[in-house]
Specification:
The complex is a heterodimer. Chain A is an alpha+beta fold. Chain A is built from eight helices and 19 strands. In chain A, a hairpin with a 4-residue loop joins strand 14 and strand 15. Classes of the chains: A alpha+beta, B mainly alpha.
Chain lengths: 344, 349
């Protein structure tokens, strides 16, 4: 087990910069998720941690020691790949035992069975990977990554090849296993739900740079940047150029962010015309035309009360508005206030 | 709406299916006759011909038994749906065929043409010691040399093609694309066009009249194609597996041997079989790279049996041909399914 630190990490490819000045400190035993759209540099960061890629500059520290030049095989890092990368020519047991072939392990067999028990695949040990379902392969990959008691567990989109139900149970399962072992874990994902449900902290990346590091609540309630605000939350946040005729705002405000679920129906509020209604099961998402512009609005009901062209009045708490300046940075401690003119 | 007679439609579909299958079998039978007949003829000649002359009557008599047998099995296969019944019918037809062959041509068969296998001085016995300077070898010498040429060139081809294919598949290096295109361009020119330069090179190097000459030349000629094939197989092995092995503690070399190589086993076998067969049947370069009778391989042995020394003892020529065919045939049959995979190597994931 180890604490990990990245200092000004950078990776240039021939034509582009994949990772740009990434610095973060990860505590021993912490579960960090790296979240971002594809091509944001999150997998590159992961592979640099694993030692598969060499950083162009910057330092990778394990427990305060620089490991940039340590080969992948000597870093004692376990990886679970998106494709699971099981060795097709070996049985499940041989797969799990594979890492022990390179370090002296006296109780390899016992440990393999312990791992198999941990991930609940004891009855599959004799099978070939091709005879397993996706979820079972996932568990084998996890057991193989954990058998050498790694300093660091790296998960690269581990759930994206599973169907929705299995994903839900594996999310909890992976969380349970990493907690039980207390292993420092870094999860790379493009799925915000995966990141926010599993991780202690989430590091949101875009175009090779860190946008924000924080808990799920930080990212949702206090997004540092326009990108984070837009990326976190489903359905996505309303980002609108503010109209100063109906809103009173600080001068430097360039974009107004308002979550669909921050809006609510009220007797006193701005007039809104329903444009469309999309039932989503537990709730319905509506698009409404308001003095602020077209807004997404969540109606918390399975049986929508409104139909297109209905008129209603909407309001929101001033504290729920998030303001961004021209550079896309959040303006801290500032909120928008609806003016009287909006109620007309 | 008119009533549809489903039973009648079903009967019609069944009839069509039977007719289609029958037509297919008849067509395939006719197409395969010109392919199979010469081989069959050679086998028949080798077991039946006596000093020189060839009795085609024996072939036709054998065919008169075999053709009805094949047709009978075709009918049995069509009419009997159950596998046990088919096997039973097949066994019965086989027994009848054996009996028919025994009765029709059995008396004509003998092993005398195969005496070259045990008689080291066959040619000298027939033509006197003066033939070919008294150097005409025992067939097992030629067999051993052929085996040596085929095996050595195969081992070298497979080794080099595997390592080169892996490197080209996995690494970016200056001139990689040029190298790949070069491999294809080389395939455009037939190696026989290079016979004279190759002869000169081998002469200057001092390998003329040694088996090392044809072994090296065959390896060099076969490599471009084999490298290309192996590259295709390695391309199909995902990167993840290799990275995973290295994160698990393997060195790159260990990852290659323990994880990547087992995945391209079909490719190794396919390339190995092809390499062996081309080495086994090589004639042009083994002939070109010797100036006398410094070494004999099976192809030159067969050639001299057919043309130079023996005149027209077709029985002996046929027997040597059959003997020459057997290793390739066995190898091919054993590894057939890997050879068909070869074309898939580049495509499948």
């Amino acid at each position: 087990m180890a604490g990990v630190e990245l200092r000004n990490l950078r990776k240039d490819w021939d034509t582009a910069t994949a990772v740009d000045d990434v610095s973060i400190k990860i505590e021993n035993g912490e579960f960090l998720a790296i979240l971002g759209p594809s091509g944001c540099g999150k997998s590159t960061t992961l592979f640099m941690l694993a030692g598969v890629y060499l950083p162009t500059s910057g330092d990778i520290m394990f427990d305060g020691a620089r490991v940039n030049d340590v080969e992948a095989r000597l870093r004692n890092v376990g990886i679970v790949f998106q494709s699971y990368a099981l060795y097709p020519n070996m049985s499940v047991l041989q797969n799990i035992l594979f890492p022990t072939r390179f370090q002296k392990t006296d109780d390899a067999q016992a440990r393999a069975h312990e791992m198999a028990e941990l991930v609940q695949i004891t009855d599959l040990l004799g099978r070939r990977p091709s005879e397993l379902s996706g979820g079972q392969q996932q568990r084998v990959a996890l057991a193989r990554a954990l058998i050498k008691r790694p300093n660091l567990l790296l998960l690269d989109e581990p759930l994206s090849n599973l169907d929705a139900t299995l994903r839900l149970s594996m999310r909890a399962e992976i969380r349970r296993i990493t907690r039980e072992l207390g292993v420092t874990t870094i999860l790379v994902t493009h799925d915000q739900l995966e990141a926010t449900t599993m991780a202690d902290r989430v590091m949101c990346m875009n175009k090779g740079r860190i946008e924000q590091v924080g808990t799920a609540a930080d990212l949702y309630l206090r997004p540092d940047t326009l990108f984070v605000a837009g990326f976190i939350g489903s359905p996505p946040i309303n980002l609108i150029p503010p109209d100063r005729d109906v809103l009173s705002l600080p001068d430097n405000c360039h974009t107004l962010g308002l979550r669909p679920e921050a809006l609510r129906v009220s007797e006193v509020g701005m007039p809104a015309t329903v444009l469309s209604v999309e039932p989503m099961g537990r709730e319905a998402m509506m698009t409404v035309d308001t003095p602020l512009g077209d807004l997404r609005f969540i109606e918390a009901t399975a049986q929508p009360k409104y139909r297109p062209r209905d008129l209603l009045r909407l309001t929101f708490d001033n504290a729920d508005t998030i303001l961004f300046d021209a550079k896309g940075q959040r303006i801290p401690e500032a909120h928008a206030i609806l003016k009287e003119t909006a109620y007309a | 709406m008119a009533q549809i007679d489903w039973d009648q439609l079903a009967a019609q579909s069944r009839r069509h299916r039977v007719i289609k299958t029958a037509a297919l079998i008849v067509f395939l039978t006719f197409v395969s006759v010109p392919v199979i007949l010469p081989f069959f003829w050679v086998v028949v000649i080798s077991f039946s011909a006596r000093t020189g002359g060839v009795e085609s009557a024996i072939l036709w008599r054998a065919c008169a038994v075999l053709v009805p047998a094949v047709l009978a099995y075709g009918v049995a296969h069509l009419t009997l749906p159950r596998i046990a019944h088919r096997l039973l019918a097949g066994a019965g037809i086989l027994a009848l065929t054996a009996l028919g062959l025994w009765l029709s041509v059995g008396a004509e068969l003998h092993l005398n043409n195969y005496r070259f296998l045990i008689n080291a001085n066959l040619i000298e016995d027939i033509r006197g010691a003066g033939t070919v300077g008294g150097q005409f070898p025992w067939v097992w010498t030629a067999f051993g040399n052929s085996l040596l040429v085929a095996l050595c060139s195969t081992v070298m081809k497979v080794t080099v093609a595997t390592l080169a294919g892996y490197y080209i598949s996995r690494f970016q290096f200056r001139g990689r694309n040029g190298f790949l295109q070069g491999l294809l361009i080389i395939e455009v020119f037939h190696p026989w066009m290079l016979t004279i330069p190759i002869f000169l090179v081998i002469y200057w190097v001092g390998l003329l009249n040694t088996l090392a000459g044809p072994i090296l030349v065959l390896t060099a000629i076969g490599l471009p194609f084999f490298i290309f094939i192996m590259k295709g197989f390695f391309d199909a092995v995902p990167w993840d597996i290799e990275m995973s092995a290295m994160a698990d503690g393997a060195t790159r070399r260990q990852a290659f041997y323990m994880v990547v190589l087992p995945q391209v086993r079909p490719g190794l076998i396919a390339v190995g079989v092809l390499g062996f067969i081309t080495g086994w049947e090589e004639y042009v370069f083994v002939t070109a790279l010797r100036t006398g009778n410094s070494y004999w391989v099976m192809s030159t042995y067969l050639y001299y049996v057919a043309e130079d020394v023996m005149g027209v003892d077709y029985g002996l020529v046929a027997a040597v041909s059959v003997f020459y065919m057997i290793p390739s045939l066995v190898l091919y049959l054993a590894c057939q399914r890997y050879l068909t995979q070869m074309t898939l190597g580049g495509i499948k994931g």
